[in-house]
Amino acid sequence: MFSKVSAIFALTSVALAIPAPSTPTDKYFWTVHNLSNKCTAATCYYDFNVTAEAGPNSAPSFSAYGCEGTNVQGEFKPCTTLGIDIPGEVTTNEESAIGGTAFNVFVQFKYKAGNTQYIVTGNETVPKGADAREFKIYASQIAAVPDKA
Ligand SMILES: *[C@@H]1O[C@H](CO)[C@@H](O)[C@H](O)[C@H]1NC(C)=O
Ligand SMILES: *[C@@H]1O[C@H](CO)[C@@H](O)[C@H](O)[C@H]1NC(C)=O
Ligand SMILES: *[C@@H]1O[C@H](CO)[C@@H](O)[C@H](O)[C@H]1NC(C)=O
Q1: What are the boundaries of each domain within the chain?
Q2: Choosing a second label site near 5 at 20 to 30 A (CA), which of 19, 65, 91, 138?
Q3: Closest ligand to the CA of 28
Q4: Ligand nearest to the CA of 23
């Protein structure tokens, strides 16, 4: 009897020791607050805050304020203020669907954990003209590169 229970225990411990995969199935997300998006004929201007709980791969929690830019900047731009406990960067971008009624809000989060630099990217589709929205952006790409520094 006793040895049977021990065997089950041992198997369970082995199963728990297998690390979780670093894939989008982790359902790691950030929360966008108070999105403002105003479009002129040629350009859309966005502004929001984004916060996160601690996540997989030692991702720290953070609060990023003043994440603003346009749909024509063509690159990720850093948020104005970032509250975070370890070295990191939160940048954002927006892409308009061609001729569409929606755009994609992108967030990229870079941070260093141990000797690894993580770059996590996600996006969410939002209707044009949507304001004051709160929504989640799920990480869709997670890159991990050794950091020799
Ligand atoms: C969202 O906007 C409201 C009203 O301006 C403000 O009170 C609130 O603090 C904002 N939330 C975040 C997370 O920025
Ligand atoms: C973002 O958060 C800051 C600090 O709480 C607040 O002052 C600002 O109004 C917020 N911006 C938006 C777009 O909600
Ligand atoms: C945008 O997000 C979707 C859903 O998470 C993902 O499938 C897609 O690859 C992302 N697009 C880019 C350009 O990263």
Answers
A1: 2-146
A2: 19
A3: 3
A4: 3
